[in-house]
Amino acid sequence: MIESRPWERRYPPALKNYQLAPELLLGNLAKLPELLSERYGDSAAFTVVLPNGLTADLSFRQVHALSDQFAAWLIHEQKMQAGEVVAIQLPNSLHYPVAVLGAWKAGLIVTNVNPLYTEREVRNQLADSGARLLIACDLFVERAVPVVQELGVPLLTTSLGDFFAPEVGRAIAAQAGVDANGLPCFVDALALGARLALTAYRANPVALYQYTGGTTGRSKGAVLTHANLQAVLQMAEDYITGFGMHFEPGDVILTVPPLYHIFAFNFNFLLLYRSGGRNLLIPNPRPLSNLQPAFEQFPVRWMTGVDTLFAGLLAEPWLQANPPQLKAAVSGGTALRPATGERWRALAGQILEGYGLTESSCFVAFNPPGEHCRPGTVGLPLPGCDVLLRDADGKACAPGEPGELLIRGPHVVGSYLNRPDENREAFYDGWFNTGDIAVMDEQGYLRIVDRKKDLILVSGFNVYPNEVEDVLAEHPDVAEVAVVGVPDDSTGEAIRAFVALRSAGVSAEQLILHCRERLTAYKVPRQILFREQLPKSPVGKILRAELRAEQ
Prior knowledge:
Blueprint: H1 32-40, E1 44-49, E2 55-59, H2 60-77, E3 85-89, H3 95-105, E4 109-112, H4 119-129, E5 131-137, H5 141-151, E6 155-158, H6 166-176, H7 186-193, E7 206-211, E8 221-225, H8 226-242, E9 252-255, H9 262-274, E10 278-281, H10 292-297, E11 300-305, H11 307-314, H12 317-321, E12 328-331, H13 338-348, E13 351-355, E14 365-366, E15 380-381, E16 386-390, E17 403-408, H14 420-426, E18 427-428, E19 431-440, E20 446-451, E21 456-458, E22 461-463, H15 465-473, E23 478-488, E24 492-501, H16 508-516, E25 527-530, H17 544-548
Parallel strand pairs: 1-10, 3-4, 3-5, 5-6, 9-10, 9-11, 11-12, 12-13, 24-25
Antiparallel strand pairs: 1-2, 7-8, 13-14, 14-15, 16-17, 17-19, 18-19, 19-20, 21-22, 23-24
Helix pairs in contact: 1-2, 2-3, 2-7, 4-5, 8-9, 11-13
């Protein structure tokens, strides 16, 4: 008989028989800024750090006051009704927490829009979500204006210089080289909202329409409730503290991943904010030297990122010369290469790999800190999260057997927006089918093998791209790698690897030999193609789908 929750045997006593307080699931995050304002007052909550080292802050008290002003403007000037949708298309900036929290105070639903989206992608998301307002940075107004004019959606613009001293703000705007004059702007809305009365916060159960990627097909809006978010934040905090690590007031977290992505939204923004932490917001992390001022000016204790970010930082001489003194780095969004993890631990301390999805409000499993961390896995499921692995016949998998990963819990969404067919496929019997292939060991540690749709079939044998990528990434000359399957007359599919090199000199033949020494024959790439860099999402995930589409 297969044990239903083997991971609980690894839990410390504080996590045994875990139960969320029922009243937690009835709460609303709109009330959070007032509570934190009373608790942490004038302590800095958010700090934007520009590449030239200039900074601007918002305290917990200011975030509360400004989000009140924005809520008043939304209700009284925009005449928005509870349950309507605000689209937010912003980089990591001080406007972001004010806009999100203000929208929630007004009883509205937020939908995060990727600033790098094309006009077509923005149009599709605004139309699908039913957005009644778009907040966009002035850097993106050229793409935003035609869309909002076509859809009849009001536009509110922001500038990175808004919260700096006036002369500095004008210089930042001039350097950006954009002209948003004549368009309604965020700071004017705040000023008007300051003169309007906000007598009470409006409640609405739905917090987010969070769209899932859209890089491999039509983007879907996951419906995240305040209850989902409240649950996952408490589960994550209880898990980390249960294993002896604590979020302390004043802890500084470096926020490089975009806040519009569910990873940074929940871990950096909400989790650290509600713990009294300080978010260092990086509007543009490219080139990676843009991060140097943040590390030099602030005692960074936490940071989040994906494999490509950590691998890139390890190559930066300034970081090698003065590595940060972190409590932990947290890796998510895509698999952490073993070579990257080993090098980071040697230079900067523990890096904790986790796993989650938009549909799980970010978190499913997470590596415990300290001695319980298992590199090469994504850790143990969070307390309150049920996990099930099923084989191709729908039967539960034994330890060590790969199977499709299903999850359930109070943090898992109940549906996609406007997608009845996909809802029927993804949600059934109280479980959500992630589409990922995973293995669980006898101790309950999970390892994500690969996406089901990325599985390569070579002569009837299953090949998981991650395994081949890990081997290629071990080669000292390989900086980035992605593996895909391509049609082949003799084997059904063949393995093609795309590689970006740290330095020239290694040949495709040498890399293939490297693989032959470490992999069984059917897993060895048939072809290796070199690229200066591989295509990535804004979060840093390498886009296999784009590479797969190449002929």
